């Protein structure tokens, strides 16, 4: 018969658990009444659903399945502290997650907040209650109030947060970037792109695409000047471009985008930035039903280059003789991403926005159905709702009250989170020269997290 022990004073021979258990250091403050007051076994007709319930001082409780506890055992037998990796291959986890029938199956030391679980195979796992709560529970309050992210609009952020290139402090830059999603480095050499490349390479690895690792682009001052490398993308022209995210047509969306204006146009050419997370939160507040539509409906985006045949998209296109189709094209590109919604959410909180009205592929939300009026109406309803939601979000994004406008000058290098920040450009006249790249967001965060406090990086 299983039993729980409400309070157990550990014998002297096991007092080492107070400072070191399961082969790893820990911090315990003896005598402090922590969260958990009691531990009981919750039985089930199906043994795989057996769980241990942690009962709190304030009448709340947390049930943890035995299989979860076994999976999170941090003994040196099942966890490598040199590599911070589990050793289990998860082929017999349920067999291992059986409580001992020959010893007291579990004990809880309230004073030191230690839960000891004894398994049928003879292994013993010890857990600190604080770690159990940290590992098992996603605290929405912490996420909502996390200092790592400050949503903004035109009235709350009037200029791009910046640091100097002189005595550049990566930790300060990282805090600004993580908090606002955009940060600038001032005083960078602008006679050519070399200093910009060096700065970018010091911050994170490149996120390479078919555009190349690093780009120099713009419009020529004189007709006979050597042309910049160009792709069939509006970024290489001088027309106005509305707020959007880059690379929505890629499964691995570029995480960080960098822009440096090496030469500004005589007229126009302002850069515009919008906090996509703030826009999404506004939509959720005003129309939660439309927010849910954009968070659950997959949308396809594509990038087409050298594929302007009138038959593109049909089966006939790929049967055409390549020697007679687009003969002057040196390369054809077709990038495509399917299955991503416009708003990517975790626990109802947006963690990525994929908004690009220009690169949307045909919207395939309709279905051919049998002669069923209700099914046909539902098809139409879902499609119309998506357009209503997309239009509403677009109106919020294009609202000038949500836009930070700057006319970048040579020497100012802007870094922005392409999973959060939408960028735009006003039309311009004359010669304008830019350089930039995509950087790995994962590479940046891996470097930044050790330098940031836990409230900054806990949810990034």
TrEMBL record:
Its cofactor is L-ascorbate; Fe(2+). CDD domains: CAS_like (cd00250). Belongs to the gamma-BBH/TMLD family. Pathway: Amine and polyamine biosynthesis; carnitine biosynthesis. It comes from Bursaphelenchus xylophilus (Pinewood nematode worm). Residues 164-438 form the TauD/TfdA-like domain. The lineage of its organism: Eukaryota, Metazoa, Ecdysozoa, Nematoda, Chromadorea. It comes from the Eukaryota. InterPro entries: AlphaKG_dependent_hydroxylases, GBBH-like_N, GBBH-like_N_sf, TauD-like_sf, TauD/TfdA-like. Its EC number is 1.14.11.8. Residues 52-127 form the Gamma-butyrobetaine hydroxylase-like N-terminal domain. Pfam families: GBBH-like_N (PF06155), TauD (PF02668). Keywords: Carnitine biosynthesis, Dioxygenase, Iron, Metal-binding, Oxidoreductase. Converts trimethyllysine (TML) into hydroxytrimethyllysine (HTML). This is trimethyllysine dioxygenase. One of its GO terms (cellular component) is mitochondrion.
